[in-house]
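yo

u said u wanted the structure for the complex thing, so here. seqs first:
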Amino acid sequence: MKFVDEFRDAKMINKTAEEIRRLADSGRHYRIMEVCGGHTHAIYRFGLKDILPENIELIHGPGCPVCVLPMGRIDDGLSLANDPMVIFAAFGDMMRVPGRQGSPLEHKARGMDVRVVYSPSDALKLARANPDRHVMFFAIGFETTSPSTALTLIRAKAEGIRNFSVFCNHVTIIPAIRAILDSPDMRLDAFIGPGHVSTVIGCRPYEWIARDQRKPIVISGFEPLDILQSIVMILRQLRAGEAKVELQYKRVVPWEGNRAALQALADVFQLRPYFEWRGLGFISQSALRIRDAYAEWDSEQRFGIPGVRVIDPKAAQCGEVLKGVLKPAQCKLFGTECTPEHPVGALMVSSEGSCAAYHNYEHRKAAAGLSV
Amino acid sequence: MCLAIPGKIVEILGASGSLATVEVSGVRRKVDLGLLQDDMPQPGDWVLIHVGFAMSKISEQDALDQMNTLRMLGETEQAMQEVRGYGLEEN
Amino acid sequence: MRSVPQLRTPQSRGGIVSLTEKPAPPDLLPRIHFRDSQIEMAHGAGGKASRRLVEGLFAPLLFGTFPQPLSDAARVTVGDVQVAITTDSFVVSPLIFPGGSIGELAINGTVNDLAVSGAKPEAVVVTFVLEAGLPTGFLEAEVRAMARAAERAGVRVVGGDTKVVEHGKADRMYVTTSGIGSPLHGVNIDPHSVRIGDRVILSGPIGDHGITILLARGDLDIETDLRSDTRSVFPLIEAMAREAAPGIRWMRDPTRGGVATSLNELTRDCGLAIHLDEDEIPIRDSVRGACELLGLDPLHIANEGQFLAVVSPELSTRALNALQQVPGGHEARIIGEMREHPPAAVLIKTRYGGSRIVDMLVGDPLPRIC
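structre next:
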C-alpha cells in the first residue's frame, strides 16, 4: 500500500529506534503524551512500546471522542430513535457503547432500526432512499470528522432533504489539551500532536502550548515511522532546551490548515457555551452545536431530548486515566468489573480508549514480563 | 477521530466534480471532494480519506523528503564527529 | 448409580461415548453459569460472547458438568465403528454473494468441520427453514448450488427436513447441515497434545469471505473484486495427513471470529502461548485495503475455505510441502509457533521487534472511524 508500507519498513524503524536510544538521556525519565486516540491505537497495534527505551513513557491523552462522550448523551440519542419511523445511523465505534438500557447494538437486537455507516454522507443516502422514514445520524468526532458532518448538512439543506437530522456530539481538541495541562497531577515533557485533526485546524492552534507552557509539540502521522520520527524530533528539542510546534506529518498536514473545511465548520456549527466530557467534567467552549440556520436538521432542536445526565460510578477512575494521571491497570475496576465485554466506563468500549487498547493488546504481555 | 487512509483518485464523477472514485489497494469507494474545493485533486493524485471525505492532498515530494531525512539519521552525527576530528571548530 | 449425566462432550476421557450404555438419571441439577439476561447478536458471532453461551449454558446442561475442550466434530462409537459427527447452521445475509451462496456454505461448512476433526466426510443431511413467499426459482438455484458443492466435495446428501414459516419469521432461508465422517487413519486431534515448539500452519489467505459478505451488504458502498473463499479443505487435509499424520496435533477451520478466535480457543484449551509472525500471514491486497479503510483486523474476519493446523516441528516442513503441492494449497504458510509465554494468549510480532496480544472479539468486527 503506497504511503503506508514505506512507513512500516522494518530497517528504517530499527534505525529510527536506534536514534531514539542515542538521543534519550539515560539519566532522565521522559513523559510524552500522545493526545489522539488514533495514536494510542497505533502505538499498541505496532507494538512500539517494545522498541522504545525504558525511560521513555508514553501517556495516553483524552483524544478519543467515544471515550469522552457522557452516557447521558447516548441515552438521549437512543431515546430519539425509539420510534419505528426513525433509522438510527452511527459509526461502528458507537455501536457497543452502553447507555443505561444497553448499547445501540443491543437496542437493534430488541427491534430498533440501527445501521452502521462509514460516512455521514451514507446516512444522508439512507434518508434519500427511505423517504417515509427519518434518519437520525449520531455524530461524534473531533475536528477531523466535524467538517464532513458540516458538508453533509450543507448538502442536505441544499437538496431540501427533510427526513434527515444530526444529533451533534462533535468536540474540539484544544480545550481537552488545556484541561490536561491545567490538571495539578500532571507532569509532562512534551506532546505528540494529533495529525489528522491538524489537517483541518493546521499547526497554529498549538502555539500556546510551546509558548506559554514551554512544552515541545510535534504534529505526527500515524505510521510507526511517523510516530518514531516525532519522538526523535521531541528529544532533539528537549536536549536543546527548546519548546516549539513542529510538523512531522508534512506530506499531509498544511501548516495553515484547510480553509474550506474551516469555512464549512463556521457556516454550520457554533461553539456550545459548555459541554460535559466524561471523566473531565464540564469544559467551556469545547463542543459544537448546529446553528439556527440549520435548525431543521438538528435532532436536538427538532425533537427535544430528555437531557439525561448519568453519573459514572465513583469507583470508575476514567477521568484520571483520561488525563494520564493513572494507567489503565491502576484503576480498581480494570480487568475485573470493567472489561471489554462488560465495560463500566467508555475507555473500555472504544477500541482506541486506553483501557480497551491496554486490555486487548498489552496487559497479558506485561503480566508475563514480555514488555516494559 | 483519526482513521484516515491514503487513496488514489481514479475518476472524477458527475457534473459538479465534487465526487470521485478513489482506490486503496484494489478497493474502490466514492469519496466526497467538497473539502478540497480550494485546490481540487485530479485523477492520479493521492488524497487522505476519512469517513468518505478527502481531507488533504498527499505530497509525494514530502514523503520522499521524509524518507531521505530518516535515511540520514546517524549519518549526520557521524559527519559531525569527523568534522570535529579535524579540529576546525572554534572551541 | 452414577450421579451425573453420562453423555459428555466427546474428546474427553479417551474421547469416546458409547451409545449402547443408558445414561443414569441425574440427582444433581446442573447449574448454568451464563449471566447475560437475554440473547444478543454477539452470542452468535463466534467470539467471546458465543463461547460464554456454549460453555456457560449449553455445555453444563447438555454435555455434562465438567468443562471440556469444544471441538468442531464429535467422535461417537456405533457398535464397534468410530464415526465423526457434526452440525452447522447458516443464516448468512445476503444469501448470494460473489464466490458463492448460502447453499455452498452449508455443504462446505459441515464438510470442513469433519475434515478438521481428522475425518473423511461421508454423508450429509440438510434441514431447510423456508420463509413463505420465497420464490421457487431461488430455492432451486440454492439446491443446485448445494448439489454441485456436495459433488465437488465428494460427499453424499442422504436426507433432510423442511419447514416453512410465515413471512417475516425467517430471513428467506435458513439452512442447517449435519454430517458424518470416517476418521482418518493415524490422525489424532487433541489440544492437550500440543507442545512448545509445534508450528502453526495456515492454508491460505485470510479474510476473503468475511470482507466479501460485509461489502455485499451494500451499506458501506465499497467495491472490490473479492470473492468468498468457500471450498472443501478436505483434499488439502488428506494430503497433509498422508505425509505428516503422526505430527498433526490440532486443526480448526477459522470461520466466524477468524484466525484470532480459533487460535485463542487453542491457547485456552492447552494453556500455552502462540507467537505469530505478522509478515508470514498470507492476505490479499484488497482484503488488506478494505481492512485498513474500515479499521478492521484481518485476524478477526471469517474464512470459509481455510484451516489452521498445529504440527510437530519434525513434520511441519513435510506437512507444508504436501499442502503446497495440492491445487489451492500453494499459499499455505507456517505462520507461527507454540511457546510458553504469555500463557493462554496469542501474540503477534512484527519484523522490527514490536508485538501485541491478539484477542478474541466480543461480537462481530465493526468498521470504525477513530
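The CA atoms of residues 42 and 363 of chain C lie 4 Å apart. Chain C touches chain B through 18 residues (CB under 8 Å).
cya
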